[in-house]
Design goal:
GO biological process, one term: DNA integration
CATH class of the largest domain: Mainly Alpha
CATH architecture of the largest domain: Orthogonal Bundle
CATH superfamily of the largest domain: Intergrase catalytic core
CATH topology of the largest domain: hpI Integrase, Chain A
Order of helices and strands: HEEEEHHHHHHHHHEEEHHHHHH
Number of helices: 16
Strand order of the largest sheet: 1-2-3-4
Pfam families: Arm-DNA-bind_3 (PF13356), Phage_int_M (PF22022), Phage_integrase (PF00589)
InterPro entries: DNA_brk_join_enz (IPR011010), Integrase-like_cat_sf (IPR013762), Integrase_catalytic (IPR002104), Integrase_DNA-bd_sf (IPR038488), Integrase_DNA_bind_dom (IPR025166), Integrase_recombinase_N (IPR010998), Phage_int_M (IPR053876), Phage_Integrase (IPR050808)
Number of domains: 3
Family: Belongs to the 'phage' integrase family.
GO molecular function: DNA binding
Distance between the termini: 116 Å
Strand content: 5-15%
Helix content: 40-55%
Number of strands: 7
Length: 458
Amino acid sequence: MAKSLTVKEIESLKPETKGYRKCVDQNLNIWVAPNGKKTWSVRYTVNGKQCFGTLPKPFGNKGSGYMTLAEARTECQRIQGLARSGIDYRIQHEEELKRKAELKEKEARENSIITNLFDSWIENGVNRKDGNKSIVQSFKKHVLPTIGNIKIKELNEHHLTNLYRSIINSGKNRTAVLVSKDICQMLAWGEKRRPWRSLMAEGNPASLVQINKLLPPDYTNIRERILSSEEIWSLNQIFLTMTANYNNSKEKNGIERPLKKETQHALWISLSTTCRIGELLKSEWCHVDFTNRTWFIPKENTKGEIGNKQSITVFLSDFTLKQFKELYELTKGSKWVFPATYKSMSHICEKAISKQVGDRQIKFKNRTKKLTSRRESNSLVLGNEDWTPHDLRRTGATLMQKLGITNHIVDLCQNHSVLTGTQKHYLLHEYDDEKKDAWQRLGQELERIINLPNPLIR
């Protein structure tokens, strides 16, 4: 039997180009790697078969991550005892590692937090039309900072109630409603699936919270804001006055820049076609046919559930056609009607116009601090209530009603699905002439309003 090595002799072993094994003691070896790392190896015989097993820690005496010579000898003796009992150390060690990994995974599952559930839900359980962008932003802003680190098994209705109340107290009633719906959807998804359902053994806490009882008594989620004829006239005057003041000013530092021409055209097109602002901002110039005076909105750009979306062809009135032609002179170098400033291959953000309009009605906002790189003024205030680009869609539809256009045609102009069941498959007339007439009459009415010398003149 070879002479047993001492600690000093092991420490003196130098690495070579190739790794090598050195006998330290009976059945105990050490492997010296080219990088100098020294690993313990034990030889043993189990059921007549000679085996080698690597000990989990390398040679050394620098702490718990290392194994001294004495510890290695003790472990070697233990392994020999296992072998005499017919137990293979390597198999036992692998099973132990597997058991510890499973235990660690189980503990991790049992201690999963709301953020873990949210990440899984976003990846596998929800598919919003915007690629889940808005819901991710909403949770990161309103939900995860408050309850994201709470263990799922510890989440209760009080956590959710306090969350909703904090949002409501900040004046964001509609946001609280949307957040509550999304949380309900997420928890309902988790309640049916492993491993989340085992963590909700006491039930879904979202089912115990009634958001309606937390909202102010006068809350309604139905917005009814429309612009009056006077406000439409005033909006046009604001555009003209701000542009003239800015252009005629020699010192422009103290003069507010007028709303971008592209934005002005977007607002007039939204009002005169009753389209959704997001549908407009995603448009490409190939969708606009100046010869046939049409604007095609493909179904992928429209609002609706997957499978139920429908495209629409908008017939351009003289008023709308003029807006598109002037807009074309501004952005014809791009495939997009409203190209992004810094992303040449994309359209502008769908919320860009709404932000520009909202930032110029700051008196109606509850902002606690000034936003960076954003205009904040009251230059677009009309009356005693704020307005949004989507209110223009409602305004245009209401004007159509006032002009005597039937509700059925107004709905079709807004691309609402007015047919149900088998009607969708058998009643295929699209009322193109009626819609064309409706849009033309709306355009004429808008032209008449904005050209009045005084808004009070009917």
